[in-house]
Amino acid sequence: MHGRGFREAIAPTGLVIDTVEYAADQILITGRSRFRVSICPNCCRPSARVHSRYHRTLADLPSHGRPVRITLVARRFRCATSRCTTRIFVERFPPDVTATFARRTTRLDSILHHLGLALGGRPAASLAAPPADAGELMGWKGNGRRRWPCWKNERLLKEGCRPELDVRAPSYEKFKCNLRQFLTR
């Protein structure tokens, strides 16, 4: 490998890898962000004042037949702007590493998303090595909103498609799309 070692090749590109441990049943990676400063989500100003740190665990693509767990050291920052209403905020990782509040890396999410689209919810859930249910594979969060950023038509998603619980079969979600109402506006 030119320019990249094994540590950098096994983990997403936006991380600095501290340790790689090989357990009998999984690979454990400890990493952190490459950046020394973070941008406040409220006032958009950089801050280097670290308030505290905590650990965040992500699932990643399997390697050598073993699941990979990434433990990120995430930092909380203090906003340096006196007029900003956000005093303490958590650093955001690059979008090619993970999304905000996600428990999986972006590349694992992408693979699971394409499996769900190609095979459908239940067949993809039985095929996927990491645990994922049919609703997650089809792109629905628990609150009924789409989670995939690739859906470009926001008006159609907000006004046309809404998941509703089917009262005849309460364990399944029934998706109703009122396209006629959308197209006549």
Automatic annotation (TrEMBL):
Lineage: Bacteria, Pseudomonadati, Pseudomonadota, Alphaproteobacteria, Sphingomonadales
Pfam family of the protein (one): Zn_ribbon_ISL3
Residues of the Transposase IS204/IS1001/IS1096/IS1165 zinc-finger domain: 38-80
Stated name of the protein: Transposase IS204/IS1001/IS1096/IS1165 zinc-finger domain-containing protein
